[in-house]
Amino acid sequence: MASSSNNNWIDTSVLPADILSLRDDGFFEVVERLVGKTVVDLIRIQAIDNVRVFMLVPDILQVLHLQSSELDPIKKRVTFLLYNQNFVVKCGIKTSIKYLRDLFEAKLNEYHNNEQDNDIDNEDNISISSDNNVPIGQKRSASLLSSGKTTTTKRRRQ
């Protein structure tokens, strides 16, 4: 298959910002714009109607091994039927599916990286508080002052 150097072709800006939440027709419209109607028909017949389902199906082409009259029209479009009744999937179809998988994987990685960045930013801004909405550090100081107690800490020599 394609080498990792082909990842230079992966540009997630070709995807709409909401691709991870698109389902059904919205998802299929994006896929058709990127790789064509034939691939849409291949995934639609398998009820693969969003990015997450697409990514969880290990082999989109496995369905072509089934003997079913429902699959015959799509098989004729995505494969070459050999004289010995075996078939070979057209390389453009294989490449289109790999491209989609790589593109969606890159988008999911971006999403997860953004989520992690947001989590780190949120951790920096978290203020732990207890009852009365007073931050714990301030509450401890306030209670020590009100009780008249003082605390001392010894510093270690370095």
Question: Short description, anyone?
Answer:
With 158 residues, the protein is mostly helical. Helices cover 50% and strands 4% of the residues.
| Class based on secondary structure composition and strand pairing | mainly alpha
Number of strands: 2
Largest sheet: 2 strands, antiparallel
Radius of gyration: 28 Å
Uncertain residue segments: 1-5, 134-158
Helical stretch tally: 6
Order of helices and strands: HHHHEEHH
Which of globular, elongated, flat, extended, rod-shaped describes the shape? elongated
Give the mean pLDDT. 81
The fraction of residues in strands falls at under 5%
What gap, in angstroms, lies between the N and C termini? 60 Å
Report what the structure shows.
There is one protein chain. This protein is mainly alpha-helical. It is elongated, with a radius of gyration of 28 Å. The termini are far apart. Helix 1 packs antiparallel against helix 2. It has a domain of 109 residues. A two-stranded antiparallel ribbon has the order 1-2. The chain is built from six helices and two strands, in the order H-H-H-H-E-E-H-H.
